[in-house]
Amino acid sequence: MDQTKVHKLECSQCLMELRSGRIITADEGFMKMFGYTREDIAEGVTYKDLVPCLDIKQIVGKLREEFVFSSNICYEHTVMCKNGEVKAVCSMLEIQNTLIKGHRMIRVSSTELASIIELDTEAKFK
């Protein structure tokens, strides 16, 4: 394999309640990428905090429709970090089969699109 064409991307992962959008757990990549702390998560960060322009009821309805056909969905969207910075990301959403306190969960894995674009540009010139 050509090592110059394979690069590790920074990524983040969190577990979110489908109905409310509340983030239950998040990894260090999430903290680093979006600027939130474990304390913020414990206090109740929601997907609405990350994507304030969303109508959460509308997106939950859309996700439920999509999850009928597939357990994985990939979206390109923007996220607002805790400090107000806006980042373009690519997120893979995976519906979880287990319920936590009666709520369906979604695992969200994200990476910044700037990293992907940079990788694509580098590959074109090599």
Q: End-to-end distance, in Å?
A: 14 Å
Helix content: 25-40%
Series of secondary-structure elements, N-terminal to C-terminal: EEHHHHEEEH
From the spread of the alpha carbons, the general shape counts as globular
**Protein structure class:** alpha+beta
What is the CATH architecture descriptor?
2-Layer Sandwich
Look at the structure and give the CATH class.
Alpha Beta
Oligomer: single chain
Low-confidence stretches: none
What is the fold-level CATH name, i.e. the topology?
A: Beta-Lactamase
Our estimate of the beta-strand percent is 35-45%
Describe this structure in words.
The chain is an alpha+beta fold and 126 residues long. It has one domain (11-124): 2-Layer Sandwich (Beta-Lactamase), CATH 3.30.450. 34% of the residues lie in helices and 36% in strands. The protein has a five-stranded antiparallel β-sheet with strand order 2-1-5-4-3. The protein is globular. The mean pLDDT is 83.
Task: Please sum up the structure shown.
The chain is α+β, with helices and mostly antiparallel strands. The chain is 34% helix and 36% strand. The protein contains five helices and five strands, in the order ββααααβββα.
